[in-house]
Amino acid sequence: MARKIVATAIALGLLVPGIAAAHHSFAVFFDSNRVVRIKGEVRMFRFANPHGTIVVRVPARNGQFRDWQIETNAPVMLTRRGWDRSTLKAGDQVTVEGWLARDGSRYLRLRQVFDAQGKPIGTRPFTENED
Fold first, then answer.
1. Are 69 and 63 spatial neighbours (Cβ–Cβ below 8 Å)?
2. Is residue 110 included in any domain, yes or no?
3. Residue 48: which domain range?
4. pLDDT digits (tens, 9 = 90+) for 10-48
5. What are the C-alpha distances in Å from 82 to residues 76, 108, 117, 123?
6. Cα–Cα distance measured from residue 18 to residue 31, given in angstroms and rounded to the nearest whole number
7. What digits encode the pLDDT tens for the residues 75-93?
8. Is 0.70 surpassed by the pTM of this model?
């Protein structure tokens, strides 16, 4: 019996860090002091847990294009701000404002999206301590 308890405790000890890492902290990956704006064409919008994803193709200075990945809040949070699965579609022109990844990669945490006419999408911007 004692062996089963020890084995279960070890298994849980190995499992918990993986679960905790799967849902990461904003501060670990994103810099709250570095808000950037990108403008481009939506390539993909994934409305799924634990975080949605937007991929935007942005023109680079050299005439080529670069894809940026934007992590959104969970669908329940997006829904509370007026978003749904059809809010963004491939081909939509958008401007995205978000917090830059600490590693400097083309990866943002969503703060606000604006449509081609400059109108905000959703009822209000997100903050860095919402999930």
1. no
2. yes
3. 26-121
4. 443 444 444 344 445 676 788 989 999 999 999 999 999
5. 10, 21, 18, 6
6. 23
7. 999 999 999 999 999 999 9
8. yes
